[in-house]
Amino acid sequence: MPGKKPPDVDPPLELPKSLPATTSPSSKQRYELTPIYEGLTFERFAYGPFVPHWVPKQYIEGYFPRHGADTALVTRTTVEDISKLQNKGHQHLPRWQLTLRRFNPSIHQDEWWNEEFDAVVLANGHYSVPFVPKVEGLEEYMKRYPGRVIHSKQFRSPSNYEDKKVIVIGNSASGKDISTFLNGHVAYPLYQSRKSPSRWDGDEPPSGISWKPIITKYHQSGEIEFADGSILADVDNVIYCTGYHPSFPFWNTGNNGRPIYSYEEGRINGSYLHTFVRNFHTLAIIGIPRVLTFRSMEYQAIAVARVWAGRNSVPLPPDEEQAKWESDRWDLVKRENRKFHDITWDNGETHDYLQALYNIAGLPQLYGAGRYPPVLNDETRWAINHLKKYPEPKKNEEHGGFILVDRAQKDSLHFI
Ligand SMILES: Cc1cc2nc3c(=O)[nH]c(=O)nc-3n(C[C@H](O)[C@H](O)[C@H](O)COP(=O)(O)OP(=O)(O)OC[C@H]3O[C@@H](n4cnc5c(N)ncnc54)[C@H](O)[C@@H]3O)c2cc1C
Ligand SMILES: NC(=O)c1ccc[n+]([C@@H]2O[C@H](COP(=O)([O-])OP(=O)(O)OC[C@H]3O[C@@H](n4cnc5c(N)ncnc54)[C@H](OP(=O)(O)O)[C@@H]3O)[C@@H](O)[C@H]2O)c1
Description:
Blueprint: H1 6-9, E1 21-23, E2 41-43, E3 50-52, H2 54-66, E4 78-85, E5 95-104, E6 109-117, E7 120-122, E8 129-130, H3 138-144, E9 149-151, E10 166-169, H4 173-182, E11 190-193, E12 209-212, E13 215-218, E14 224-226, E15 231-232, E16 237-240, E17 244-245, H5 253-256, E18 261-262, E19 267-268, E20 271-272, E21 276-277, E22 280-285, H6 293-309, H7 319-335, H8 349-361, H9 378-386, E23 387-388, E24 398-399, E25 402-404
Parallel strand pairs: 7-22, 9-16, 10-11, 10-16, 11-12
Antiparallel strand pairs: 1-6, 2-3, 4-5, 5-6, 8-17, 13-14, 14-15, 18-19, 20-21, 21-22, 23-25, 24-25
The structure holds flavin-adenine dinucleotide and NADP nicotinamide-adenine-dinucleotide phosphate (NAP).
């Protein structure tokens, strides 16, 4: 749905009037569609720097049995509603009621039920809902030519595009990756529509690729018009690599008193360190910032676990101070025209953020339970500064499947 935000494209399901209940199965399985495609490599992981996507998959799948946590794990179940329970819980700490749904194949029905929890961690990802910009004629074009326009979340393999006339839209990680994989498979040339240059772009496009400006109009005759007035006809496929939005359809704003996320401002409402949620001391959010991803999530998780277990070494500041952190950050990102949850590496922001989480977590006691936050050692920092997946103009040579640069000047974490 071009130009639409998550509340429109990913609305909550209607809850049954009383629970438990069974209903006819919904087609909405929130865990089914992954954005992973053939050839995708993952950055900054063990055996890296760039490993195939199944390496982190195996790591995650193995994590639960390795730590004996698989007995507590419930899968193939979606959270459809999260509501704060009034007047329940100790010391004014709210408990939560979750409404859950699972497809039961033996009766071919969805089963719904409620469960209560002392605390909730939202870890539902930040790349949930595809974003496609609004363009004149696009919605009608998609209806008239079903399947011709897709988002990178639906892209799987270049083999589906052999000798097809293709336009890739977007010039960030997905646009770069997918156009690189398609180049040579599709009809010559592969068209790439760029809104702005990326840091790996030179003055000329790579061989096999033709750059175009943004698309301004889809004609119902099938022709596609660009901002420079040029037109392409007989296009077989258009692949939008224009990013994602997070989505919180399960958050019950009525029962919880405020929305959890502002889609207009692109930020969690009331967050502290992108992790804790002001006034909701039994709620945490892991994985929202665009930063040194896995490492940051690990620090977030350890800090939250320590706070909730009462084993944190530095207390969380009072709500007023947390509010000041949020408003100071909002002022900063507005001034610098940046996104609230994008944390940059080169100006030291990542260091300060990770350090703050590390300080809250602290070190475990000699005889106590608790996990050590890993350190960001010299080797890791060197890799972040020097290893790239794609060459940049006038920058250094290829080196066994990755690029070695002297020192990245800007946006080292662009791929995360
Ligand atoms: C194409 C692509 C490539 C990427 N490559 C890299 C990379 O190389 N390095 C890197 O560090 N990061 C990369 N990222 C960023 C990546 O999103 C994160 O690193 C990582 O996957 C985030 O983990 P997560 O657990 O927070 O979210 P996700 O991996 O998105 O997992 C969230 C899970 O929650 C489930 N869920 C959502 N809603 C519900 C619900 N209501 N009920 C039940 N379950 C629900 C989803 O189905 C999903 O399984 C990439 C992202 C994309 C899109
Ligand atoms: N590990 C990997 O190899 C890998 C691969 C894919 C994705 N990822 C990760 O996944 C996340 C999402 O990346 P993404 O590339 O999908 O999205 P993204 O980083 O949000 O980039 C969106 C792109 O769409 C462009 N755009 C927006 N509107 C446009 C229009 N009307 N016409 C043409 N272009 C338009 C943007 O241009 P402007 O910048 O000019 O606005 C930008 O280039 C990132 O964190 C990324 O690091 C990682």
